[in-house]
Amino acid sequence: MTITPAQIDLWRASASESQNLEFKEAATQYDTRKLCRYCVAMANEGGGHLVLGIADKPPRPVVGSQAFPDTQDVAEKLFHWLGFRVDVEAVAHPEGRVLVFSIPARPKGTAYHHDGAYLMRSGEELVPMSEDQLRKIFAEGQPGWLENPALKDVSAQDVVQWLDTQAFFDLLRLPYPTDQAGVLARLLDERLIERSAAGFNILRIGAVLLAKNMRQVPDISRKAARVIVYAGESKMQTVSDITGEKGYAVGFAGLVQYVMGKLPQNEVIEGAIRKEVKLLPEVVVRELLANALIHQDFDMGGASPVVEVFSNRVEISNPGEPIVPVERFIDGYQSRNERLADLMRRFGICEEKSSGIDRVIEAAELMQLPAPEFLTSHRRTIVVIHGPRAFRDMNGGDRVRACYQHCVLQYVLRRQMTNQSLRERFGLPEGSSNTVSQIITATLEQGLVKMDPNAPDSRRYARYIPAWA
User: Fold this and answer.
1) Average pLDDT taken over every residue of the chain
2) According to the 3-state scheme, what is the secondary structure of 10-28?
3) 194 and 240, same structural domain?
4) Which residue ranges does UniProt annotate as crossing the membrane (predicted)?
5) How many other CB atoms are found less than 10 A from the CB of residue 302?
6) Are strands 48-52 and 21-24 parallel, antiparallel or unpaired?
7) Do 378 and 402 belong to one domain?
8) Structural domain containing residue 71
9) Residues 234 and 375 in one domain
10) How far, in Å, CA of 245 to CA of 214, rounded?
């Protein structure tokens, strides 16, 4: 396809760079090794366009590029270096020469590498793909773990005996069929079971969601959620350690209530009345539990979602490293198990795409809790929700994290962070503007937020947006 100056201007007007669009200035030359690495990373992420000769920060002026004067020569060299073809086109934009590299998407079930490194982008950096991501790519086109049978060749009566079909129809808000054939037909339509030569196979996704007792199904017994309660702020003394029995969908309400019942109580004063409240609001627990169940890596054997309750915090973790960078949890969405996520949404257990973490951050702000921590450890994703803590007791990391999350939340809500909005988030009085300015400055210095380029050029009226926006 021929790329026109109008197309270049359309790309320049994009709110931000994306998975499929990257700008580089490169006025005179561009490192060929870096070019190869970017081509590999973009191909692994679905292909797109790398554009040389345009500043990568808004308003993205055309600076022009004299790099790679012979486009046919560089295209041939790229094919030799990469093993796949990249189209290279020089566009005569009125403001300067622009070079566009059109990078194809990788074939299904394949990932590209450069010098042995399977690359992807994380913000402005190129990073190696994780084992989890590569395993998922190489398994494309094959039935996933959830789509394989948990129980084979069972009778129609066994299906109803193993699965809580009454709860299934209740969750879908449908009347229970008048006969067994109607129940089985719906389960078949939802691909939770399948016909076999000797009866039916109950697929793992059906068992994981609807099992009356996960422990009695060896194939999924290790996927049941586990709740551990500790006596203090460390793991030195365990009060209780319970593993759930019911499938995720039919047992979700009970799991939430069990966790809420194990949370410590905090004493607060409202209108001169002293009362006890739970460490965390239920909406936060609910959303994070749903996320942990849905986004786990089911291919990891012997690992399950875990809730750990301490006297001052709750940690919820799930198997597998995240496929969205943790700093983009608030605004980004990509599900590792889309069919499971879709069913959980239809059951009313989780929110629409990408809104769950927003609600967690919003609830933390309304309750003026410390900002949640989103962490990765060895093949696990961890969310830490801290109980109430006065502003004076928050350290610098707590304050910067809250500033960044507040900025992203405002951006998602089509607003911008200001000194006033952040002051209100912390519940500070009007005279605290200088303290809040110091927090914003620290967050700017860490490269997490930036000045809104469309705001008035005045410190007093400054607005801020995420650094990646």
Assistant:
1) 89
2) HHHCCCCCECCEEEECCCC
3) no
4) none
5) 7
6) parallel
7) no
8) 5-129
9) yes
10) 5
